[in-house]
Amino acid sequence: MKKQWWHDKVAYQIYPKSFYDSNGDGIGDLQGIIQKLDYLKELGADILWLSPIYRSPLADQGYDISDYYDIDPRFGTMEDMEELIQKAKDRDMYILMDLVVNHCSDEHEWFQKAMEDPDGEYGNFFYLEDKKDGKLPTNWRSYFGGPVWDELPGTDKYYMHVFHKKQPDLNWENPRLRQEVYKNINWWLDKGLGGFRIDAIINIKKALPLKDYPVDRNDGLSDISYMLKDAQGIGEFLREMKEETFDKYGAFSVGEVFNEKEDELKNFMGEDGYFSSIFDFNKEIWGSSDKGWYDRKAITPEAFKECTFESQQKGEGVGFYSNILENHDEPRGVSRYIPEGDVNEASKKMIATLYFLLKGLPFIYQGQEIGMENMIFESIEQVDDISTLDEYKVTMEAGFTSEEALQVVSRYSRDNARTPMQWDESAHAGFTTGTPWLQVNPNYTSINVREQLDREDSLFHHYQALARLRKSPEYKETLVYGTTIPYLREHKNLMAYYRKGAKTLLILGNYQRESQRVPLEWNQVKMLLNNYSELCKKDKEIILEGYQAVVLECLC
E-strand spans in 131-261? Predict the structure, then answer.
């Protein structure tokens, strides 16, 4: 594999609105990120991905962009952005922006011009269809519920939006539209960006000509996934985008790709793939249901293990996955992947160890490094997220009570990851001196950055140690490029694997509260990391305490 500048890095996702507020208006901002760069450097982060900060009406928290060339005033100015890029560069850090080009905002100039003249140049920037016989062009269901079609105001046409109705889909079949997208990407790369995270990119290719798909709910609509499975030729768009933009700058790109076809992985993240990397969502989508969140299965330790090893096996010899436990679209990882009642600092360190040392690029989401947990919502009125509100409605329509529906959506709500960052035990967790835009999790008095920085055995310091180990001259070659080989895979509630390269490392995690014995194949091992103060070893066997995780170098 040809070595790339980003291979040995550690990435960190920032949700700017909830990270740190520098001016007391209750919303995180770019100056707040600048003030925390040294904290992130201390953690071990090298690549910082910012969720959208472009000008936006925030119908979907910035993923509805009204101007790709401007910073939303809520977050600061273009001068603030340029300062952030430079100050990150001064610390050998790289800034990634979110590339949101499946759709824009209905307040974008392009869409405004399309409404004025739907048969003109900008009408072809979108998917517009004539109204016929009072019937929608297709029966596709949007990701946020309801049909993907809405009336184009002041016209006799519909426009397509596979997300929110304020997020009209861009027509990638139009070469002029594509060139406008590439022009904007290069404009930002000229400013010194390290690259982009590419949002919802699989949706840019629609199955044409338009047609209906099987109805799968009482609303008479069809899940959008049926259409996506039918769509062919996305590679032509993605290859062109890569050659016109990323390749010219040596930029890093990571795709949000949930449903690539079986034979497409190499095309997406191979050495000559469309992107540098794609996220591994195997465990995130496990247990999902077409019916909605209420029918979703909670993941088990064995399922977590199998999902992880399946992805590692698929990626071996192909390319680098980007490995995550959580992001802005998912609930908190420790609340999701650790069995209920067992969420504590030991189990948080275990889950961190198991995912962080896999082959691929580790991503940390803000607050993950201190073990932030899901919010306990007491009322649906506390929820801001449009996706959660739709799933609440779906759950109620399925016959659940309001209390049951709230419990269901609380488990998977995107707002779990969007509550403000917990910096200290002061008012509003030190996030703002004003009123936070979203309620702070009440557990901030016990889970916060200040407490963990002051404590040597904290989760923060464990993440710091993981980053340091991955970058160490002695073990970097093995942890970055070595093969992942499962060990004792059939051993229940034990997740164990080798990283084999220049050296041989064994990562062990006891995925249960009871202790268990683990046989070793090696006579001599060297302890590199342990989330407990001690390890019980007897001859060629070790005893792992509940949720104990260790990293061993195998010597002979």
Answer: 140-141, 149-151, 157-160, 195-198, 222-223, 252-255
* Burial class (CB within 10 angstroms; exposed 0-12, middle 13-18, buried 19+) of 318: middle
| Tens digit of each residue's pLDDT (9 = 90 or more) over 348-372 | 999 999 999 999 999 999 999 999 9
Length of the chain as a residue count: 556
Nearest CA to 75 among 92, 98, 53, 42?
Answer: 53
Answering whether pTM is above 0.90, one says: yes
**In 3D, which of 70, 136, 28, 106 has the Cα closest to residue 432?**
28
Do 150 and 203 fall within a single domain?
no
Average pLDDT over residues 510-525: 96
Domain for residue 339, yes or no? yes
Give the active site residues. Answer: 199, 256
Residue 42 in any domain: the answer is yes
Residue 6 domain-assigned?
no
The verdict on 307 and 449 lying in the same domain is yes
Rounded to whole angstroms, how far apart are CA atoms 210 and 276? 32
Q: Measured on CA atoms in the order 76, 77, 81, 86, is the torsion positive or negative?
A: negative
Nearest-angstrom CA–CA distance, 439 and 418: 9
| Domain housing 243 | 11-101+175-381+415-460
Return the amino acid letter for 206.
K
Asked whether residue 247 falls in the same domain as residue 123, the answer is no
Q: Say whether both 123 and 233 belong to one domain.
A: no
What would the 3-class secondary structure string for 189-217 be?
HHCCCCEEEECCHHHHCCCCCCCCCCCCC
* Residue 275, domain member (yes or no): yes
The 10s digit of each residue's pLDDT in 390-435 is: 999 999 999 999 999 999 999 999 999 999 999 999 999 999 999 9
CATH code for position 124: 3.90.400.10
Q: Which residues contact 102 (CB under 8 A, 6 or more apart)?
A: 162, 163, 169, 170, 199, 200, 201, 203, 204
Bridge partners (DSSP) listed for residue 159: 128, 150
Q: Is the pLDDT of residue 27 over 80?
A: yes
Domains of the chain: total: 3
242-277: per-residue pLDDT in tens? 999 999 999 999 999 987 877 889 999 999 999 999
Q: Considering 460, 495, 518, which residue would you say is the last residue of a domain?
A: 460
Tell me, yes or no, whether 77 and 145 share the same domain.
no
The reported pLDDT for the residue numbered 259 is 76
Token pair 């520098």 in the structure block, residue: 22
In single-letter form, the type of residue at position 466 comes to L
